[in-house]
Amino acid sequence: MDTIRTVSTQPFKDQKPGTSGLRKKVRVFQQPHYLENFVQAIVNALPEQQRRRLVLGGDGRFYNREAIQTILEILVANGVGEVLVGEEGILSTPAVSNLIRQYQADGGIVLSASHNPGGPDEDFGIKFNNASGSPAPESLTERMYQETLSINQYKRLPLPPLELKAGREYRHGNTLIRVLDSVDDYAALMTRLFDFDRLQRAIRQGKVSLTFDAMHAVTGPYARRIFHDMLELPAHLLRNVQPLPDFGAGHPDPNRVHAHELWDAMMADGAPDLGAASDGDGDRNMIMGRNIFVSPSDSLALIAEHHRCIPQFRSGLAGVARSMPTSTAIDRVAKHLKVPCYETPTGWKFFGNLLDAGKVRLCGEESFGTSGDHVREKDGVWAVLCWLSILVDTGLPVDELLLRHWHAFGRSHYCRHDYEGLDAAAADAVLQGLLAQAGSLRGTSCDSASIATVDSFTYEDPVDGSVSRNQGVRLLFDNGSRIIYRLSGTGTGSATLRVYLEQLEQRRDKLALDSIEHNRRLGQFAHQVSRIQALTGAAEPSVIT
Ligand code: G1P
Ligand code: ZN
């Protein structure tokens, strides 16, 4: 029997968590001590009494399995009481969040780089979720980061390769390792939130049909169990449900660019009523109807509008929240429902306190993220079940639901321009430049609207009072249009500048227009006033979604 080793190490200076944990290239994580340092820093940042029980799992991407073994060896050496690990080290991000809550764990470690590609030359990531199942708040990630800067040793107990089959248990040192089925508890949770009998009946009777694309990522087994085994959706309507370490060389990002297989299927004749896709770790969702794409901001607003079709929300929403760059469509629904709508910085961690305090029950981000108060992560499969429930309950097709929504509330024509591959300092100069010329920008017009406010978004958490500054530069127009600029916090290489465009449209003949087309002029305006080309060299956005 090996004994616990104390291994000498030196700090890496680049282990500051971003929007969603620490994301780096696989090769960076493979450096000796790199992963080990970060995991030890997580443990060090946790008070003794919060090392009782932890959940561990990842999205199955390249390096997942090796990392799971290493992490188990470190957690055992540190005397963590119990580790609940997913079968083969696989758990979707919402499933981890659920397990933490269900088993009253002190937290969990999620291995994922979300929608970023996987493979030996691609991305890997690790993040910590707290006892409520929420991504660690900034105060905790900052503590972890400080630990990484001063670390000089970590503990490790070398273990034989652990076979991670559901039901297995191992005892090493003072730690019990229990292997859980990746899907069971999550599927059981879904049956408590939705009316499965009704959905199954509607599918069996052909009243509603769905095609789901797992993009060769973690939701494959979840989709098979929930949509096929439980709801009896024919297997051929499930696409790419075999998880692969490199996601089939694809980009597991459910949007119109990367989920083009689903896109094409939904735009073809005879498409099912609903099309959906999820990302690498199962927290994102893309929703489509026959011949129509539902923007994530609209999806959030429609779920709020029709929340009574969803058993989970029958008792009302209490409140809702969206990230600042997400369109204001949900604000209008919240006003109609007479519930508060909170505006938070980008990143799911900012919803955690609001959900814990019962101030909100539904939240979402423009970046294909939606969820409720059943977990503390966004939840891709859950969002699909929401939409299925709405279709079954209203009996209306997706395009009709959208049209009715826009007629009632107006439409936020919304799109995002991403400028990728920028020099970080140059990208930052764009934001600083905008703030520096705030005075002269005020009053400047694009078409008939003029800029009323230029500011840098600051958020004060209404629950714990913590303040987060520099969360994006906003140009707010006098007619409600918005241009938001912020730097991505999830990249692993060069900088990405995101420019979010929103224009509210009330005129009936303009409601169904293509949003990308509709926002073209505002996008050019955003490009010019921010001097993106002069400062970064980028002549145009690299991706428009
Ligand atoms: C992106 C999204 C953000 C989301 C995050 C994690 O972060 O914009 O909404 O929470 O991924 O999925 P960003 O790269 O913009 O920092
Ligand atoms: Zn994700």
Helix-strand blueprint:
Elements: E1 5-8, E2 22-25, H1 26-29, H2 34-45, E3 53-58, H3 64-77, E4 82-90, H4 93-102, E5 107-111, E6 123-129, H5 138-150, E7 153-156, E8 169-172, E9 175-180, H6 184-193, H7 196-204, E10 210-213, H8 219-230, E11 238-239, H9 260-267, E12 274-278, E13 285-289, E14 292-294, H10 296-305, E15 320-323, H11 329-337, E16 341-344, H12 352-356, E17 362-365, E18 369-372, H13 380-394, H14 398-409, E19 411-422, H15 424-436, H16 438-441, E20 445-446, E21 449-456, E22 459-460, E23 467-468, E24 473-477, E25 482-487, E26 495-505, H17 515-518, H18 520-529, H19 532-536, E27 543-544
Parallel strand pairs: 3-4, 3-5, 4-9, 10-11, 10-12, 15-16, 15-17
Antiparallel strand pairs: 1-7, 2-6, 5-6, 8-9, 12-13, 13-14, 17-18, 19-26, 19-27, 20-21, 21-24, 22-23, 24-25, 25-26
Helix pairs in contact: 2-3, 2-5, 10-11
1-O-phosphono-alpha-D-glucopyranose is lined by residues 19-20, 114, 323, 346-348, 365, 367, 369, 488-490, 498.
Characterise the protein shown here:
- The chain is of the alpha/beta class.
- The protein folds into three domains: 178 residues, Alpha-D-Glucose-1,6-Bisphosphate, subunit A, domain 3 (Alpha-D-Glucose-1,6-Bisphosphate, Chain A, domain 3), CATH 3.40.120; 224 residues, 3-Layer(aba) Sandwich (Alpha-D-Glucose-1,6-Bisphosphate, Chain A, domain 3); 134 residues, Alpha-D-phosphohexomutase, C-terminal domain (TATA-Binding Protein).
- The protein is 33% helix and 25% strand.
- It is built from 19 helices and 27 strands.
- It has a seven-stranded mixed β-sheet, sandwiched between helices. A seven-stranded antiparallel β-sheet has the order 20-21-24-25-26-19-27. Strands 11-10-12-13-14 form a five-stranded mixed β-sheet, with helices on both faces.
- Strand 17 and strand 18 form a beta hairpin.
- Helix 2 crosses helix 5.
- It is globular and about 75 Å long.
- The site of 1-O-phosphono-alpha-D-glucopyranose has 14 residues, from loops.
